Amino acid sequence: MLPLDAVAAPLPLPVRDGVGPSCVALPADGPWPTMLDFLVQRFPAIARETWVERIAARDVVDEHGEPVTLARRYQPRLRLYYYRALESEPRLPEDEVVLHRDAHLVVVDKPPYMPVTPSGPYLQQSLLVRLKRRLGIDELVPLHRIDRATAGLVLFSVSPATRGRYQALFPDRAMHKEYEAIVHWPPGTNLPASYRSRLVPDAHFMRTREVPGEPNAETHLQVLEVCGAHARLRLSPVSGRKHQLRVHCNALGVPIVDDAIYPTLLPYGPDDFARPMQLLARSLAFVDPLTGVARSFTSARSLGGWPDRQP
User: Fold this and answer.
1) N or C: at which end does the chain have fewer Cβ atoms within 10 angstroms?
2) Is residue 176 exposed (0-12), middle (13-18) or buried (19+ Cβ within 10 Å)?
3) Rounded to an integer, what distance in angstroms lies between the CA atom of residue 146 and that of residue 144?
4) H or E segment to which residue 197 belongs
5) Region for 152 from its dihedrals, namely left if φ exceeds 0, alpha if ψ lies in -120 to 50, beta otherwise
6) CA dihedral in degrees (174, 180, 185, 190; nearest 10)?
7) Burial class (CB within 10 angstroms; exposed 0-12, middle 13-18, buried 19+) of 16
């Protein structure tokens, strides 16, 4: 399944209730007599009856906009478009806050546990879909991602015409990002001002790991305060690798408080909303590529995971 929120070309199905169509490519060969048979085998978690209902509602079409029918023969190398749907979604306890909106950008302060884009059990509760419904902007696209467990700032593009100019700020390292984290702080800990390592996907899809070799990830670190067995850090990623801050903090012996993946991947289960991971995307700063004006945005959220601090 390929999410299509970032595709600018016209699609054969419109955005509906904030959700754009998903796409699946039909392999060059296979044993499926009909397209329905392919869909049932390709998505075993979706009942055949569900696909029959979607097809009857004309909610499954090919790349040319032609509806798929129950009897339509399998056609290799074609793309099918459909609407993803979930019977139920977990309800999140907090809403996003829109900090800024203009003709080109939307800046949002995201609560923890909310994914930026649809994933897993979240569709309508994802930040992108919520914003499309709330703001009525079908062309909205996130310019970067932060983890579902991470709170803080996310920058969205409004206009396809200027999207590329803003997207280029990230690979060009012209977007200055600052995070705050509350970490475990063993006695005698000392941190370097900068940490570099090579990060690659782990054997488990949820994790990233360090390996020997040329560094591809760099983080600047600053200790803001220490309180007993914990400390608050300012983290400034130079690169943007998956889980970079979480992996680097763990590698330095100061894992982030209530991180469910590092150092130990905890079993999957319901979110504990009372104990969010203590990582916050605090600020974004950049020179606007359209106007040349310096711009900055700051999250109004605060971290609360100080087990050693007395009220």
Assistant:
1) C
2) middle
3) 7
4) strand 194-201
5) left
6) 30
7) exposed
Residue 187 has pLDDT above 60, yes or no: yes
Which helix (H) or strand (E) segment holds residue 251: the answer is: helix 244-251
CA dist., res. 256 & res. 247, Å (int): 9
Between CA 299 and CA 66 the distance in angstroms is: 46
Please, what is the end-to-end C-alpha distance for the chain in angstroms?
48
Residue type, 111: P
Quick one: angle between helices 48-56 and 35-42, nearest 10? 130
This model's pTM is above 0.85: no
d(CA 59, CA 53): 9
8-state DSSP, 9: S
- Return the pLDDT at 197: 98
**Those residues with Cβ within 8 angstroms of residue 90's Cβ, 6 or more apart along the chain or in another chain:** 121, 122, 125, 270, 271
The Cα–Cα gap between 81 and 84 comes to 10
CA dist 31 → 26, 35, 60, 156 (Å): 12, 11, 20, 42
Nearest Cα to Cα of residue 100 among 167, 18, 147, 158: 158
290 backbone dihedrals φ, ψ, rounded to 5°: -90, -35
Between vectors from CA 281 to CA 276 and to CA 283, what angle results, nearest 5°? Answer: 150
* Pair of tokens at residue 21: 């169509």
> Residue 25, Cα to own-chain centre: how many angstroms?
23
Instruction: Provide the β-strand partners of residue 61.
Output: 67, 81
Rounded to whole angstroms, the Cα distance separating 159 from 250 reads 38
Residue 8's pLDDT is 47
Output DSSP code: residue 280.
Answer: E
Identify any residues that bridge with 67 across adjacent strands, giving them in sequence order.
61
pLDDT score of 282 more than 50: yes
Backbone angles phi, psi at 248, to 5 degrees: -65, -40
Nearest residue to 245 (alpha-carbon basis) of 234, 230, 258, 260 = 234
